[in-house]
């Protein structure tokens, strides 16, 4: 049994919240009932003021930190930043991390049963947007008795949710951290998403999304989608350093099998993903990304769109991120300045491209921890909150 | 707090919107926010300075001053402050124009190259001056546009700017009176408060 590191939240258990109140969606449809799967780390204090919401990215989920089982090889996806003494210090904060609607890790989505038909939702699951997610997250907060989050935090697509929180529920967010994100996707971003979607939709096993009815999976399409996506998460430098032009065998074999290490890596990443992620969910998530554009309602005037926000922002970008480059974060920062909002911005030197937001990097950690420390000081949170609700870390 | 910062603290009006160029660890903005209800942003490129600002809750933007202030609108602020950074810029004169576009009033401090100790270094000993205000060697200094108290006054005159207030900072008590009489000789740090209004 591998021992968990001392700065880990340890063994954690997902929980589920059920909602019967119909949720109206941006697409015009309504979800009559739904479930959200979530995890919590740390302890909610008596004042209920130390809650932090973590919003996940495209392929993320509720398991952000700790381990589900002693035999788990890897901890949750943001374990580098969540735990005792880490940037999001679970000795001070009560962390809530959920799987978004439309997801495939337990929350209601295309692979859940549609109560109206008794069959899987599949491609009939309604399109969900960042705004819808934030609305559903607010209802989860209601159920957990959290009126106001000390901070709402997210990277990439998660950062867009954090930003949306400050616009949809300004009075319920004390601070927001928007990391490696963008106020809207560029044409190139949408183009990459469209290639990913076409890869899935053109797989003969896709069956217009009803692959479950045919007892099959569009593995090949999802694999290709992930391979394309994965390239955009890494920097040219990181790929070069990791693989260079290294071959798997000593000689060229003049064929189309796997020859270069980078080919092998991408195929492995694609294969793993296509066996663990739902294709319909992937399609939904990429559309949620494409649709996000808070300035659209204001004729493209981002500062006007940001007017409702009240909280201080931390915006972080990474130098080699070419998916959502530093320039996109600066666009957000400059709009926040024009709107007269409190904002700090750091552009972190990293060779890891977009994926840098997931990793521990000393300067990133110093900035992140510095921000969270100030959040805690403003709320006068002690190092150990008083017991009320017990944490669900076992 | 550094003596030049103490003086600036007095000059900034209550509740002003302030932009601090090269804000370092945010000491000035932090005290201005606490004592005078000042709101604003600091610009900085030093990673440790940026982290220190974030820890204090001072708004800091990672931004190179040589890239200009295009992201700030005309008269976005009441006062733009720049302490000990002018001499490290590629074009100090253009930055001055930018600062006075963003605010009507600016406060600028820089090391006075004509300070008597600097003159002794260069004039008598024949070496480039190294001092508390100019701590670098000639080959690794970020200070590429050194100037004197008189030089800056001349630049303001050429640009038709009004000097509201000026002072010099000195480390020791020696020559406090002397620096008032002959600032260009006895002032180690030059401090100017200027406006584009007449």
TrEMBL record, chain A:
Per the record's keyword annotation, is Transmembrane helix included, yes or no?
no
AB hydrolase-1 domain location, by residue? 50-339
Which keywords does this Swiss-Prot/TrEMBL entry list? Answer: Acyltransferase, Amino-acid biosynthesis, Cytoplasm, Methionine biosynthesis, Transferase
Residues annotated to bind substrate: 226, 355
Q: Its domain of life?
A: Bacteria
* A GO MF term: homoserine O-acetyltransferase activity
Could you tell me the EC number(s) of this protein?
A: 2.3.1.46
The broad enzyme category this protein falls into is transferase
Name where it's found. Answer: Cytoplasm
Where is this protein primarily located? Answer: cytoplasm
Q: Which GO terms describe its biological process?
A: homoserine metabolic process; methionine biosynthetic process
- Tell me the pathway: Amino-acid biosynthesis; L-methionine biosynthesis via de novo pathway; O-succinyl-L-homoserine from L-homoserine: step 1/1
Q: Which HAMAP family match?
A: MetX_acyltransf
Function in brief: Transfers a succinyl group from succinyl-CoA to L-homoserine, forming succinyl-L-homoserine.
Q: What is the protein name for this chain?
A: Homoserine O-succinyltransferase
Q: Which organism is it from?
A: Halomonas cupida
Source taxonomy lineage?
Answer: Bacteria, Pseudomonadati, Pseudomonadota, Gammaproteobacteria, Oceanospirillales
From TrEMBL, chain B:
Classification via InterPro entries: Methionine_synth_MetW, SAM-dependent_MTases_sf
List the transmembrane segments. none
Cross-referenced Pfam families, in alphabetical order? Answer: MetW
Protein name, entry field: Methionine biosynthesis protein MetW
Origin species, per record, is Halomonas cupida
Q: What is the lineage of its organism?
A: Bacteria, Pseudomonadati, Pseudomonadota, Gammaproteobacteria, Oceanospirillales
């Amino acid at each position: 049994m591998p021992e968990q590191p001392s700065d880990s939240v340890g063994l954690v258990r997902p929980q589920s919240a059920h909602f019967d109140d119909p949720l109206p969606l941006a697409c015009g449809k309504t979800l009559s009932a739904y479930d959200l799967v979530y995890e919590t780390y740390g302890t909610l204090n008596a004042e209920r003021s130390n809650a932090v919401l973590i919003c996940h990215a495209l392929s993320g989920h509720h398991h952000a930190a700790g381990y589900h089982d002693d035999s788990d090889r890897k901890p949750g996806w943001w374990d580098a930043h969540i735990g005792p003494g880490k940037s999001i210090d679970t000795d001070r904060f009560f962390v809530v991390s959920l799987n978004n609607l439309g997801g495939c890790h337990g929350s209601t989505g295309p692979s859940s049963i549609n109560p109206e038909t008794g069959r899987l939702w599949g491609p009939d699951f309604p399109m969900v947007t960042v705004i819808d997610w934030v609305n559903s997250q607010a209802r989860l907060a209601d159920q957990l008795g959290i009126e106001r989050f000390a901070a709402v935090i997210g990277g990439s697509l998660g950062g867009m949710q954090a930003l949306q929180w400050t616009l949809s529920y300004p009075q319920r967010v004390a601070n927001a951290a928007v990391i490696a994100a963008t106020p809207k996707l560029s044409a190139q971003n949408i183009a990459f998403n469209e290639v990913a979607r076409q890869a899935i939709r053109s797989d003969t096993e896709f069956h217009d999304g009803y692959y479950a009815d045919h007892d099959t999976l569009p593995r090949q399409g999802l694999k290709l989608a992930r391979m394309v996506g994965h390239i955009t998460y890494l920097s040219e430098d990181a790929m070069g350093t990791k693989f260079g032009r290294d071959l798997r065998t000593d000689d060229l074999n003049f064929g189309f099998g796997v020859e270069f290490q980078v080919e092998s890596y991408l195929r492995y990443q694609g294969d793993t993903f296509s066996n663990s992620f739902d294709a319909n969910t992937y399609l939904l998530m990429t559309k949620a990304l494409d649709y996000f554009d808070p300035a659209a309602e204001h004729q493209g005037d981002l500062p006007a769109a940001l007017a409702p926000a009240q909280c201080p922002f931390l915006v972080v970008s990474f130098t080699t991120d070419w998916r959502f480059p530093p320039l996109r974060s600066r666009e957000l920062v400059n709009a926040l300045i024009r709107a007269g909002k409190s904002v700090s911005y750091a552009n972190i030197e990293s060779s890891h491209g977009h994926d840098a937001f997931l990793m521990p990097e000393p300067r990133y950690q110093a900035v992140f921890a510095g921000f969270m420390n100030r959040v805690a000081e403003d709320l006068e949170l002690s190092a150990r909150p008083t017991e009320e609700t017990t944490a669900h870390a076992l | 707090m550094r003596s030049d910062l103490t003086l600036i603290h007095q000059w900034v009006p209550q509740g002003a919107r302030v932009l601090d160029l090269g804000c370092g660890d945010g000491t000035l903005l932090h005290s201005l926010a606490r004592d005078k209800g000042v709101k604003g942003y600091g610009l900085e490129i030093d990673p440790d300075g940026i982290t220190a600002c974030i820890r204090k809750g001072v708004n800091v933007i990672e931004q190179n001053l040589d890239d200009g202030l295009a992201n700030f609108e005309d008269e976005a602020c009441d006062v733009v402050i720049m302490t000990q950074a002018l001499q490290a810029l590629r074009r100090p004169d253009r930055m001055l124009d930018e600062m006075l576009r963003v605010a009507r009033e600016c406060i600028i401090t820089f090391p006075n190259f004509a300070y008597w100790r600097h003159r002794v270094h260069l004039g008598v000993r024949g070496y480039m001056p190294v001092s508390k205000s100019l701590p670098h060697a000639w080959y690794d200094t970020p200070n590429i546009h050194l100037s004197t108290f008189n030089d800056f006054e001349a630049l303001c005159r050429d640009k038709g700017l009004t000097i509201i207030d000026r002072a010099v900072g000195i480390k020791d008590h020696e020559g406090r009176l002397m620096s008032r009489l002959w600032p260009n000789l006895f002032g180690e740090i030059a401090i100017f408060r200027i406006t584009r209004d007449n």
